[in-house]
Amino acid sequence: MTAFDLDDAGADMTEPGRRTPWRGGPLRTAADSIPPSGLVLLGILSVQLGAGFAKELFAALPPSAVVFLRIAAGALIMGAFARPRLRGLSRGAWAVGIAFGLTLALMNLTFYEALSRLPMGVAVAIEFLGPLGVAVAASRRRIDLLWVALAAAGVTMLAPWTESASVSWAGIGFAAAAGVCWAAYILLSSAAGQRFPGTTGLSFAMIVSALAVAPVGVTTGGADLLQPHLLLIGLGVGLLSSVIPYSLELNALRRMPKHVFGILMSLEPAVAALIGLLILGEVLHVQQWAAILCVVAASLGSTRTARV
Asked: Disordered: where is this region (predicted)?
C-alpha cells in the first residue's frame, strides 16, 4: 500500500513548486531516465515484494509486530527526509493528521492479518475494493454499475463456499476491513495534502501510526523484535512497502496524466498474485485467478470511464 493509491489521493502534494524530499540528487536523476509508466510498475513491484517479505516474517513474528517494524522503519526514514513542523499547525491540521495516521495504522494491521490468512493475490484483490469504491462513488455514470457488479462477482468467486485451506472467512473479513480503511486513507490523504506542505503530511501520519501501533506490536513481538536479522528484514519491508514506491510514484505523477497512473495501479492485485506465486509458492486455483482478473477489470473500467 502506497502513498498514492488513487489519482486524487496526493494531488495537492504533486503540484509544481512543492518541496519534496527527493528533489535533485542522483536518485532523482536516475528516476528521470526511466519512463513514468516504468516507475509506477516498479513501485507496484516494490510494494508487493515488501508484502511478500513481510509474510515470510510471520513465521518468526505475529502480523502486528511485523506491522510495527514496517511502519516504524518507514516513519524514521520519512521523518528524516520530510520532518513535519508541529509549530503553527491549526486544530484542523492536527485532527486530519491524527486521523490520517490512525487510519494508516488500522489499514496495515487489518491487511497484515488478512495476509496471514489468505494468499497475497486474494488479499490484495479484496482490499482493492476500497479505492474502487471511492472511484465509483465519485462518479454518476450508469456504466459504473457494471464495474460494481464485476467486482462483486470477483469477490463472490473468492469466498470459500467450498472448503479451501487457502481462503478463510476471517481473512476475507480482515481484507474487507483493510479496504474500508484504504478508502478512508485516500480521502484523508487528499485532506492532509491541503493542510501540510509538501510530503510532511504523510510523515506526520506515519509517526502517529508508529506510535499507535507500538503498544500492540511491542507486546506481541516481545524480545524477538530485538533480533538483528529481524530488524534488518523489517527495515527492508519498510523501504520496499513505503519509501521506495512513494518516491517512485511521486516522480511518475509529475510526468504522466493521473488517469494513466490510475489505470496502471489497477494491475496491483494481479502483480500481488504473481509475487505470491513466485516468492511464497502460493498456487491459486483457476477460479481465484478469474476472480482477481474481475477485480482488475472493474478497476480498469472505472478508471477509464471516469475520464471520458
From this structure: 1-25
Give the range of the structural domain holding residue 143, as residue numbers without chain letter: 33-305
What percentage of the chain carries pLDDT values higher than 70?
A: 84
**Residue 15 maps to a domain:** no
Domain assignment present for residue 89? The answer is yes
Residue 197's CB is within 10 A of a number of other CB atoms, namely 14
Phi-psi region of 229 (alpha: psi -120 to 50; beta: other; left: phi over 0): alpha
Distance between CA atoms of residues 48 and 236, nearest Å: 12
Q: Which is nearest to 136 in space by CA: 179, 74, 107, 98? A: 179
Helix, strand, coil percentages, rounded to 5, for the chain: 75, 0, 25
Measured CA distances, 136 to 74, 125, 140, 143 (Å): 31, 16, 8, 10
CA dihedral 109→113→114→115, nearest 10 degrees, is: 100
Quote the distance between the C-alpha of residue 165 and its chain's center. Answer: 26
Question: If you write DSSP's letter for every residue of 78-106 in order, what string do you get?
Answer: HHHHSPPP-TT--HHHHHHHHHHHHHHHH
Q: Which residues contact 94 (CB under 8 A, 6 or more apart)?
A: none
pLDDT reported for residue 138: 67
User: Could you give the number of structural domains in the chain?
Assistant: 1
- Of 6, 42, 1, 33, nearest in space to 193 by CA: 6
pLDDT at 303: 72
24: in domain:
no
* pLDDT value for 42: 92
Cβ–Cβ under 8 Å, residues 248 and 4? no
Is 129 a member of any domain? yes
Which residue stretches of the chain have pLDDT < 50?
1-24, 162, 308
Residue 66 confidence (pLDDT): 94
Do 207 and 83 contact (CB within 8 A), yes or no? Answer: no
